Amino acid sequence: MKYISIKEAMKKGSGKVAIRGWVYRERGSKKVKFLVIRDAEEIIQCVIKKEKFDDKKFEEADRIRVECSMKLLGTIKADKRAPTGFEIDVDEFEVVGWCDNYPISKDQSAEFLLDKRHLWLRSRKMNTILRIRSTYVNAREEFFKKKNFYKFDPPILQPSQCEGGSTLFEVKYYKDKTYLSQSWQLYAEAAVHSLERVYDTAPTFRAEKMKTSRHLSEFWMVEAEAAWMDLKDITEFAKEEIRYCLKEVLKHHEEDLKFLGQDVKKLKKIAEKPWPTLKYREVLRILKEKSNMDVPFGKDLRTGEEDEVMKYFDTPIVVTHYPKAIMAFYKPRDPEHPDEALCFDMLAPEGYGELIGGSQRSMDVEQMTEDLKKMGEDPSNYEWYFDLRKYGGVPHSGYGVGLERVIAWICHIDNIKDAIPFPRTMLRWKP
Question: pLDDT-derived band of residue 1, with 50, 70 and 90 as boundaries?
């Protein structure tokens, strides 16, 4: 028979089926062996009865352990007692790959599971998160195609910093040195003068000495850049992107989200409600009036301030006009309020923090040169970037979405390390 997925077998509901997968759980007696088999999407209980097999074959069944890979043929039927409501009465089985005593069991430490990440990926939790992540990335591709954006791939090896020299990973480049990408942004700004609207999904590297549940040294940034958009345009566009992808995840993964402990009704409401936009100064006022936190103008919003202000919102919010003094060189001053930058962050509720950072892009080469000098950077390294303003520059804006942070929020997981297959942090670079 043709092999089908467990989900397809359950949809069929009755009759002969052939499936293949791995043993998720096993138990048995001298007369019967119960196996729960998993594949990429589902699990199903399978029953091997001694009366159907000779002694040698049933002895083989008795040696089956968790994570053996198998092929099975039998009759499927509905059974409310089974884990997913269906059971297969096995007529034939073959062990494809035997398994030693599987090292992962209940109640093992987070560090041990990270050491065994290559095996922990098989867990239902990680399997579910990774499938949701795949759906999210695919939804984003669909969104940008509908918006007539072009996919643009930047270099990963870059000669200069974009987000701060202290977080650069240095790489030996033949006889010279270069750096791993902090962002595609500077190259995307070149691309919009050709393609006007571009997007990408690419690995990003930050040598931040952070040991928190929100930080990774290598992560995936999903970014967008568009000519002719100003700050208001780009913030509303960013909201539209995240909301679209959230709705697609809800459409395809409602039961998966419930399995992860997420409140699906709450997420559905978030997907439909308006998401507020506030200025940085408004956030400071809220913190002072409602939380008695006196945060001075000019201080960046850190985890404590972000978590506190989000207590008053049940959807993501966009915060604009951060102090120019603490912003990157390419974020322009607001002409009406020169101490503010035309930039934004998107913050998620329930302590998940910043999801997006973006801005309108500066067109003032003189100001950017001055800011780079204050940072200790050599402006001559950015001559190619300044050429974009010199040769027919146009207003443009963009942003970067931290993919793992969005997945952590949507999946309701407490550590960003579980939002990526193989996390890289300050202390971990293997397996």
Answer: confident
